[in-house]
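User: Could you check the structure of this?
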Amino acid sequence: MKLLALDTATEACTVALGIDGRVLERFERRSQHSEHLLPMIDALLAEAQLALGQLDAIAFGRGPGSFTGLRIGAGVAQGLAFGAELPVVPVSSLATLAQGQAADRVLAAFDARMQQVYWGAYRRSGDGVMEPDGSEQVLAPAAVPHPEGEGWAGAGSGWDAYAAVLEGRLGSHLARWVPAQLPHARDMLPLAVHALRAGRALSAEQALPLYIRDDVAARAKVRG
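Assistant: Sure, the predicted structure tokens are below.
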């Protein structure tokens, strides 16, 4: 299977190619994702000596995350998929972060600004894929839900920003948290393969971001 994966939900601009088990990746931590994303994709395809039309699908980080970043990622995925007549696979950016952690239970959090975090809990399944344990939410760090059981690991910019509050809230449920963690597109690939095999691929026009924060999405509709 040949998959292109990309994520721009956070300050990370990350792209990966999965080619029958082989993985190529580009990762940059910088602003202006719109300027760097397509050149990174072109470089990966050139390295792999593949044309876009030779891929089986394009996976993209559907969010939650930066409003502008999500629009860029979804727009690029949609445009490339239209042009090459490929299906798209939306993948949670929080789940992608969780997939890359050396833990079987992960509490993933992105800093959502406005004293809130984008939050999701994930457990690793028997086939090694992170699956959600409850719904993804945006809420105050002091209000995150308690997960079931102990031994959970925390990761993501939400932990970097609000570790003290989250540690106080979670208590014995939390085993540790790992600083400075961002999603990597290479970790999206197993999630995308799992979704494809489950029949969750979509047509290009359905490559839409998931904002979670309804008021941000509503303001965007008004401006549009």
